[in-house]
Structure formats: structure tokens, C-alpha cells
Amino acid sequence: MLKFPEKAFVGRNMPKEAFYKNLNLSSELKEKFVSDIKRISIEYKLSPDTLNLEKSGETSEILVLSIELKKQELDYRIVESIARQNAHKLLFLLKFQEQGQLALYYGKLYKTVWMPLTDLKLEARGLNLDSIWEGFIEQIALQENIIPSCDSLTIDEKLKKQDTILKLQKEIDKLERLSRSEKQPKKRFELFTRLQGLKKKLAEEKGE
Fold first, then answer.
1. In Å, what is the CA distance from 32 to each residue of 26, 36, 57, 107, 123?
2. Per-residue b/e over 18-28, b at no fewer than 16 CB within 10 Å?
3. Mean pLDDT computed over every residue of the chain
4. What is the pTM (predicted TM-score) of this model?
5. Looking at the DSSP assignment, which residues form a beta bridge with residue 109?
6. Which of 97, 32, 40, 104 is nearest to 66 (CA)?
7. Most buried of the four, 43, 98, 119, 154, by CB within 10 Å?
């Protein structure tokens, strides 16, 4: 489970109806909000005071919202809408029975895989909330096997590189499937040539 200093704990439930009425949601999403979400609470308030940090940078506080679900399947547009329409930086803890998932919005919604709640870990690293928020983005959005945590790039550069690598890998997988099923030698050679070009680009992005 997530563990932050005791004085950062809030644990305040928020009435669902009052919560979603303040959001600009379509009728479809409002119905899903009511039918899929069991409970919403503010779990933690991370601020310079509650974390004993420097009062510097643009971020004044980060709220950790706990969303307990009635089923594990969720329309993530709900989470994205909450994040985009809230002035605070929000970290989401999604829970279903004994399973949990972390999510945050940074240009788009990023989330971890579902795992036992006891296995969820997130470190508040940094001297101010700006660096802690960036650390949350790295821990949730970046895949360690693609972008090493020690990489010297900025967070935006890392996310862009990761997106490029994932798109190249997806295209390579698609072309490899097409190549295996292609019977015509000429078309197979064309696919092979494209594959080699994409694999070269992928190796360059990975620095291999």
C-alpha cells in the first residue's frame, strides 16, 4: 500500500453525487460514474507542510484520490475528466477488492498494471513538490525496460522517446505477422526491407 507521513493523511470520503455534478461529463459518463464507482475519498494531501519540504516551485499540493470500484473494468475517461477539470495535481489510487492500480494525468492518462494492493509502491523523491510530482510521473508512466530511470533526458523527452519506441515495436510486430503469412516473394521482400528499416530506427532510439 501507499505510505506517506501520518500528517499527510486525510481519509475523507466525498459524496459521489456532489463530486460528479461539479464535472462536465456526458450523460454516458455520468451513468458509468454512478454505476461503476463505489466510493471516492481524499486519501492524502501532499504539501510542503505535510512532507516537510521546501516551499518552492509551481506545485503547491498534490492530492491522492482513492477510487473504490464496483468492478475492475473502468472507463478511464472518467479518471481523465476528473484530472483535467481539477486545479490540483491528482494522483489516483484505483481499488477493486484486494487489487490496486495507480494513475495520473500528464498530457494523457498514464497508469500502472493492476496488482495486489500490498505490492503498490510509490516513492516521494525530491526536495520540493515539483520534483516529487515528476518522480511520480516517472514511476507510473515510464517502463523501466524501455527507458532506464538513470537516463539523463528530461521527463518530457523520456515520455516522447518511450512513445516512439512503443510505436516502432507495434509496427514491427504487425509487419512480422504480415511477412509470415505473405506467399508472394516480391511482397515478402518488400515487407522484409521495411522491417529492416524499422528495426534500425528502433535500435537507434534505444541507443543500441
1. 10, 5, 37, 23, 32
2. eebeeeebeee
3. 90
4. 0.85
5. 105
6. 40
7. 43
Beta bridge partner(s), residue 111:
103
Alpha carbons 196 and 131: distance in angstroms, whole number: 40
* Amino acid in the structure at residue 118: T
pLDDT digits (tens, 9 = 90+) for 29-65: 888 888 999 999 999 999 999 999 988 888 999 999 9
Task: Say which residues have a Cβ less than 8 Å from residue 166's Cβ, sequence separation at least 6.
Answer: 146
Which residue reads 494492493 in cell numbers? 117
Greater confidence, 5 or 206?
5
Q: How far is CA 26 from CA 18, 19, 86, in A?
A: 16, 14, 17
